[in-house]
Structures are given as structure tokens and as C-alpha cells.
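A note from the maintainers: we've had questions about how concatenated examples are separated. There is no special marker in the raw files; a new sequence line simply starts the next protein. For clarity in this README we add a label.
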Amino acid sequence: MAHFIFQSLFIGICGTAAMDLWAILLNRATGNPLPNWGLVGRWFAWVPRGRIFHGDITRTPVVRNEVALGWLAHYATGIVYAAALILIAGPDWTANPSFLPAFACGMITILAGWFLLAPGMGAGWAAANTPNPWKSRTLNIAAHTAFALGLWAGALLLA
């Protein structure tokens, strides 16, 4: 069990860090804004209070330490996704990682963002209420591809 927890932590952190590095590179190259993890933290803080869907998360009252909570939730989510990948792909994958399972995980995890987080924060299903939904969706796919590459790289480092 300890080995599984360590693998989940390491691989999940690698995947999430790769996603963050992608966001920084994209920001520096194109000026695309960095993710606002404070708003994600605000959303997570309101969930246990029974409020999942917000018309506009920026109009929801600020929560103490929401930026730290957002970063924590971001990395915790990546770790949970890595644990799911390890459980589904099995010990053969962690011993000899291939990209396809990591890529499938990265693409499947987009669904949580499109059908829970985005509408929950007021951006609509699959970012439909954003100024340019297809740009948002394409950026989501790119970010989750970076996440998949990071999952794979983390698994390769451990193998």
C-alpha cells in the first residue's frame, strides 16, 4: 500500500507540474493568462457548503486562503487521477510505462473540468459561456496532454 501511495504522489505531482509548466510556457510565449487557482479554491470551499454551481464564481464571496486551497486542490486532484490510472492500468504499467494509458487518463480527466468545474464556476458546460469556447476547449486539451506527458514521465522515472 505504501508503494502505491508513493507512486500516486510522485506520478500525480509530475503530471500536475507538467501542466503548470505548460501554462507558464504558454503565458510567456503568447500572453495567455495563467490559471486562477484562487477561484478554483473558492469553488472547492463552497462545495461542502452545498453550493456546487455558481452563476459567476467571481461574484461568490471570497473564501479565506482560497489561493492556497486552489493550489492544494489542483495537486490533490492530479494525485487522485494518478492513483486511478495506476489502479486501472495495473502494476505492469508502472513497471513498464507506455504513453497510451497516461494519454487516455489525461483526455478522460478533461470531462471533470468540462462537466463539473466549468459549469460549477459559471463558465457553462465545456466552457460554453466563455468568450471563445473552442479556444478554451483547445487549451484544456493541450493542458491535459501536458498532464498526460507528465504522468508518463513520472512513471518512467520510477520504473
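[label: protein 2]
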Amino acid sequence: MAAPKKKAVRKAKKGDRIRQVAAIPFRLNARGDIEVMLVTSRTTRRFIVPKGWPMKGKNGRKAATIEAQEEAGVLGKTLKQPAGIYSYWKRLANRFVRVDVIVYLLEVTEELGNWQEAKRRQRAWLTPADAAMLIDEPDLSTLVKTLKVPQPVTVDQA
């Protein structure tokens, strides 16, 4: 068990809420429509977004970027402002704990053919509506379905 998870379990046993960070990898297709990438979880094979425990010495945005690379094999630019927060019940060895997840948008610039968890996960590009139907966590499903990606700002040249 990783050290951050042990710390989180200790907090949960005291009744404290625990946090994770997540990334929603996205791209614009040829028509300019948003597509999001989901990955399967390692154990239940449900569709989820790449997520993990906070990392010592890294802010949430950087940790979410690393999780996306490890779990989904994508590189890109993670937007500064979180896209939202969702909560879910995480199954531990002998209990469930409530986890708050801070979600960041990651604009994908590169998909790796081989990545750290490639043998343990599948990934899929979907419309936000289709992705939302496949996600079990209601709060995350709503966040994905109503996803707003900031448009590039164009400045008029004087």
C-alpha cells in the first residue's frame, strides 16, 4: 500500500474526509466537438477517469497530470482551475470511506502507445453524454455530461 493511501486510511478511521485528484483527458474532434477519455478500473473494470492520491511535493494539478499519464497513457496541458469536485464511496479492506475528488481538465496533445498501466486498463474516447452514461458515480457523471471546456481566447491585432 502506498504511503499516501496509508495516511488517507488513518484520516478516514478518525472520521475525516479524504481527498484524491483526477484528470478528465479531453480533445476536440474534427468537427470541433469535445471528446473525453475514460479508462477502466483495474479491479472492477468499470469506466472511470484517471485518479489517485495527492503526491508529496506536487500540487493537485501536477498530481492529476501524472495520474493521467500513468493510467491513461496521455500527455498534455492540464488547465489551472479545477473543473469541479465529486465524491464517492471507496471500498477499503473492511470499510467504505467517503472520498472527495478534485477534478482537472487535461487537454491531450499526445497518446502513448505504451504506458505504465497499459496491460491493466482499457481506454476509450467518448462524447461527454456517452461517457456520462458509462460512469457509475452520479456526481462525476454530471460533471462529465455538463463539461465546459474554455475556448481559446483570440486577441484582435490593432
